[in-house]
């Protein structure tokens, strides 16, 4: 499977997984928050398989995810949840992609 397809699948999965808890939260402008979270996580999931860095896959995933999550964390002030979920998702996607494409 091509890296583009893997990126699309990973992005969709990461985006959906990230917004599921938001469905049960009482947030102002919930639809806007969910759209922003989905697009951020979709971009992260898409970029990890399509980024080539000289590190192990999980480290590449972690770096890409943290770099993509920092602006959202700064804007919202919710550093823990945003950086934490980004780091976990990045590590998982990076590990799976690296393991799949040895």
Number of spatially distinct domains: 1
Oligomer category: single chain
Q: Spans of 5+ residues with little confidence (pLDDT < 50)?
A: none
The helix fraction, in percent, is over 70%
Tally of DSSP helical segments: 4
Distance between the termini: 13 Å
| Secondary structure: number of strands | 0
Strand content: under 5%
Rounded mean pLDDT score? 93
What is the rounded Rg?
13 Å
Largest sheet: none
The helix/strand order is HHHH
What structural class is derived from the secondary structure elements? Answer: mainly alpha
User: Given the C-alpha coordinates, what overall shape results?
Assistant: globular
Descriptive overview:
There is one protein chain. By secondary structure, the chain is an all-alpha fold. The protein has one domain. The protein is 75% helix and 0% strand. α1 runs antiparallel to α2 (30-47), α1 (3-19) packs antiparallel against α4 (79-100) and α3 (57-76) runs antiparallel to α4 (79-100). The radius of gyration is 13 Å and the shape is globular. The model has no long low-confidence stretch (mean pLDDT 93).
């Amino acid at each position: 499977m091509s890296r583009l397809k893997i990126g699309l699948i990973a992005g969709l999965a990461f985006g959906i997984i990230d917004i599921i808890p938001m469905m049960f939260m009482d947030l102002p402008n919930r639809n806007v928050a969910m759209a922003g979270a989905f697009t951020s996580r979709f971009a992260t999931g898409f970029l990890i398989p399509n980024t080539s860095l000289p590190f192990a896959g999980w480290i590449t995933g972690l770096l890409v995810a943290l770099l993509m999550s920092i602006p959202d964390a700064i804007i919202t002030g919710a550093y823990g949840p945003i950086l934490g979920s980004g780091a976990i998702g990045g590590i998982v996607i990076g590990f799976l992609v690296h393991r799949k494409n040895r």
